[in-house]
Amino acid sequence: MERYDLPDANGHFGPYGGVYVAETLMAALDELKNEYERVKADPTFWEEFRHELKHYVGRPSPIYHAKRWSEQLGGAQIFFKREDLNHTGAHKISNAIGQALLARRMGKKRVIAETGAGQHGVATATVAARYGMECFVYMGAEDIKRQSPNVFRMKLLGATVVPVESGSKTLKDALNEAMRDWVTNVDSTFYILGTAAGPHPYPMMVRDFLSVIGEESKEQMPEVAGRQPDVVVACVGGGSNAIGMFYPYIGVDGVRMVGVEAGGHGIASGMHAAPLSGGAGVGVLHGAKSYLMQDANGQVVETHSVSAGLDYPGVGPEHSYLKDIGRAEYVAIDDKEALSAFHDCCHLEGIIPALESSHALAWAAKVAPTMAKDKVILVNLSGRGDKDINTVAGLAGITL
Ligand SMILES: *Cc1c(COP(=O)(O)O)cnc(C)c1O
């Protein structure tokens, strides 16, 4: 791999990314870009960031050898990067902290966020409480019904949850509404975006904050596994946990990178959330160009996945680029395969994984038996599954 130095000054990863927004948002994004450029070069910002990750989040998260599962599969050794052990249960908090610290430097006392399943809403409400900021979370009315425990969590943390009644009343509508709020209140407000998508500089910023995942892994793997992994695997919704794991490994030859999308009821059914591996075209959504699930008229289509966190029709622009240049591969795992890996992980390792992460686990479990016993697969276990037990119980016909 030659030197990799993306995005360019305008936020492009090859043909992807960029800034496709209304004139009214340009000034806000410019201000953000300039401020981020300043802090990027300021060591005191990163010192503060690292301090928070250590003392509030509990980083570094450990690497764990899933020995029993690996033995049962009879092939490559599977290791987990334990992002499930972070405060609030997933990788998302590290991004929320980075953006909140930036907001504080910019003198913004009000933060807003979009959320689908509620995980990013909870992470944002958490950091808003931690730094004494006012917090509004936009959430589709349909999602509010489906995710009541997370709605209550956000309220406990002092946030206001704003129901979004437009469109399909889900994540993409919440994102539109959050952008609208930002335009109106840009002087007082910082928009904490929840994944490595959206207009420049968000995909770059979110990647930088979450690169701590791959950086820690690079340091820990020689100690725990004796060497760097042959393959790193992560699930891909918008792509933030995956790019956090991949980015530090891009320049490391010999490390294969695999992003696992939600295959839902199967690619052939059309009911999935796999823009990179499901044969989708390219389009513009939420301010950036990327692979995107749309119909013949360019309308964004409804997606399906058993895991709410992967249920997004778009994907971050850097993944689109890594796919095109062949540096990363993208595959789909369907609902059934993910659920089966979910149960295996519970039984064999004593870890209840998030349904999102179960997609990455399922791919590892499928491929490990085809690899030699001295090969190493590192799975980013992006979050814990406590939030998913109602879903899993419901699928088994059990009401909790
Ligand atoms: C939100 C979430 C995801 C999907 O988001 P990305 O931006 O693709 O990482 C994956 N895993 C967990 C546990 C999540 O909460």
Provide a concise account of the structure shown.
The chain has 400 residues and is α/β, with parallel strands linked by helices. The chain is 42% helix and 18% strand.
Structural notes for this entry:
By secondary structure, the protein is α/β, with parallel strands linked by helices. It folds into 2 domains: 12-54 and 92-201, Rossmann fold, CATH 3.40.50.1100; 60-89 and 209-396, Rossmann fold (3-Layer(aba) Sandwich), CATH 3.40.50. The chain is 42% helix and 18% strand. The chain contains 15 helices and 14 strands. A 6-stranded mixed sheet has the order 3-4-14-9-10-13, sandwiched between helices. Strands 7-6-5-8 form a 4-stranded parallel sheet, with helices on both faces. The chain has a two-stranded antiparallel ribbon with strand order 1-2. Helix 2 crosses helix 4 (92-105), helix 4 (92-105) crosses helix 5 and helix 13 packs across helix 14. The longest helix has 18 residues, at 23-40. The protein is globular, with a radius of gyration of 20 Å. The structure holds pyridoxal-5'-phosphate (PLP). Pyridoxal-5'-phosphate binds at residues 90, 92, 119, 195, 235-242, 309-310, 354, 356-357, 382-383.
- Our count of domains comes out at 2
What would you report as the Rg, rounded to the nearest angstrom?
Answer: 20 Å
Largest β sheet strand count, sense and barrel closure: 6 strands, mixed
Low-confidence stretches: none
N-to-C span: 50 Å
Can you list the ligands bound to this structure? pyridoxal-5'-phosphate
Mean pLDDT: 96
H and E order:
EEHHEHEHEHEHHEHEHHEHEEEHEHHEH
Q: CATH topology of the largest domain, anyone?
A: Rossmann fold
- Spatial order of the strands forming the largest sheet: 3-4-14-9-10-13
Name given to the CATH architecture of the largest domain: 3-Layer(aba) Sandwich
Shape call = globular
Quick one: CATH class of the largest domain? Alpha Beta
Summing up helix and strand content along with how strands pair, one would put the structural category as alpha/beta
* Number of DSSP E strands: 14
User: What is the helix fraction of residues, given as a range?
Assistant: 40-55%
Helix segment tally: 15
Q: Approximately how much beta-strand content do the residues carry?
A: 15-25%
